[in-house]
Amino acid sequence: MNIVQRLALNHPLAFLQMPAGWAVVKNNFIDADPNILDRIDNPLEQMMVRANFFDADIFYAFSECVTGERSQIKATIDVWCRPSGRDVSLVSYELTFSLYKNKSKNSYFSTQQLAQDRHGAIRLINHWMSSFSLKFVYALDSDLVSCFSVDSSKG
């Protein structure tokens, strides 16, 4: 077992609440911060861990539903880990929620938010997933922005 597999098994993403109907296509999002790199002596293993868990696209999930008009709506959640300059121990998470109609490659609704830590990112993922699964059907004729916005002042 390599270092990436070992870390994924030992630090699973805690508190992810995924409603029925969601599929996770990519999940390199672990419940650990970049300081874990300090405990890895081998430079090659350090590079593998950084590339898999703390750099670029680390999480992608989607869900689909069919509206009463027989249109297919696809929701996607994409999470990017962004190192803060040269200091790899400081990262933030850029999250994007998008909606696509039928087979369109261009979203008709998209929102982005920045989370300062993995716990904030997980809360936002949970909010977006449950909002799509539980509220979206009722929001088709109303304001999509209010359906998917989250009050970041609430911990």
Molecular structure report:
With 155 residues, the protein is an alpha+beta fold. The protein has one domain. Helices cover 30% and strands 34% of the residues. The chain contains four helices and five strands. Strands 1-2-3-4-5 form a five-stranded antiparallel beta sheet. The N and C termini lie far apart (37 Å). 18% of the residues are buried.
Strand-helix topology:
Layout: H1 3-10, E1 22-27, H2 43-53, E2 56-66, E3 72-84, E4 87-101, E5 109-115, H3 118-139, H4 144-148
Antiparallel strand pairs: 1-2, 2-3, 3-4, 4-5
DSSP helix count? Answer: 4
Q: Give the averaged pLDDT, no decimals.
A: 86
Unreliable spans: none
Structural class by secondary-structure content: alpha+beta
Radius of gyration: 17 Å
Number of domains: 1
User: How far do the termini sit from each other?
Assistant: 37 Å
Helix content: 25-40%
| Biggest beta sheet attributes | 5 strands, antiparallel
Q: Spatial order of the strands in the main sheet?
A: 1-2-3-4-5
Approximate shape? elongated
- The proportion of residues in beta strands is 25-35%
**Tally of DSSP β-strands:** 5
Order of helices and strands: HEHEEEEHH
Name the quaternary structure: single chain
